[in-house]
Design goal:
The protein has three helices and six strands. With 118 residues, it is an alpha+beta fold. The chain has one domain (26-116). The longest helix has 18 residues, at 2-19. The chain is flat and about 50 Å long. 33% of the residues are buried.
Length: 118
């Protein structure tokens, strides 16, 4: 009986310790782009998705820039080529860039911008 009570108390204590762990904060990032002018802007440490998008638009430098990708706790990349533009998310910068280049599909595509949250 004592062993059962001890085990129950230990399980309860472990659950409380686990629940008390601080939650990792979310960060948001975004990339804005205007293809005709090749203007782009990024943000990567925003506390909200809206803040990230507004930040990228403000840094883009052209009145007709548009947000092409936004991410939460990760990375995003923008590739551009003669025929198309492509964006992709990823866990790392390398993954996002590789995916964007693959989606772009043309050997002449290049990475224009990337953004990774902390």
């Amino acid at each position: 009986m004592k062993v059962l009570v001890f085990a129950a108390c230990a399980a309860l204590l472990a659950a409380q310790v686990h629940a008390a762990e601080p939650k990792k904060p979310s960060f948001y990032g975004a990339i804005a782009y205007h293809r005709d002018s090749q203007s782009w802007g990024t943000s990567h440490e925003a506390r909200t998705a809206r803040e990230a998008k507004v930040g990228a638009l403000e840094r883009c430098g052209h009145a007709r820039c548009e947000v092409v990708i936004s991410v939460r706790n990760g990375c995003g990349a923008l590739a551009d080529g003669p025929k198309r533009t492509a964006v992709a998310p990823g866990v790392t910068r390398n993954e996002a860039e590789t995916k964007a280049l693959r989606k772009c599909g043309d050997g002449a595509c290049r990475i224009v911008a990337w953004a990774c949250t902390p």
